[in-house]
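User: Predict Esterase/lipase's structure from this.
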Amino acid sequence: MTQKFMYGTDSNQFGELSLPEGPAEKKFPVVVSIHGGFWKDKYDHSDFTDLDKQLVANGLATWNIEYRRVGPSGGGYPRTFEDVTNAVNYLTTLAKDHPLDLDRVVVIGHSAGGHLALWAASRYQHQADELGQPVQINFTGVVSMAGVTDLEAMWVDQQPLPMMKDIVPNFMGALPAEAPDRYRLASPIDLVPIKTKTVLVHGTSDDKVPVELSQSYYQKAQAAGDSVQLVELPGVGHFDLIDGASPAWGAVKEAVNRLLDKE
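Assistant:
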């Protein structure tokens, strides 16, 4: 069963809640899924629709969130971040009428969604700031799927590519040198330790988000004392991770199961 719920008044402020079948008294662990697409309007939550069906078939509830993105929907810094927080926190409202186990919630995200998933995991019991309120859900774990762990490093990597070089500044509203504090607030690598079990899944043949970003995050998070695992997948590309028939997606499901102790 899948239902759409609005967590805000904008047409992009919604999520799709999917529940497995089960006894009425049973509460289900939850996977929050955050799609990627370099934060652009042309990509949307449908990237996770079929993947979520597999998670639901495995006995998990899913909350597939949409958010305002760069383009006509008016997203970018700080609105995208505010939306992610509000969407996650809306789980506390949904749990009043739906069998959700909010003590067992994992957040996953692909590419730009991996960036937002890691960022959201850092916001539990956080001070309110220009990016909004704290996240109210204490995540059991986070899985970054080829996530953009370092915004400035992603910007540097994209400079030789004319069609890509403005993606990060367009999202952040400034170049790194123009707003270093803004980048520090938004870049996961600058937010460790996040004190949440973390799994980074990344293909070594990724030509969109280099695997070195996950490697650098892993090293810094581990040094900071976080519980973090890096799963490098030889020969795997960027979009293999969201191919429901791919062994790469299987590695993501395994990570989710481990975090929720479902193996």
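The two ends are 24 Å apart (CA to CA).
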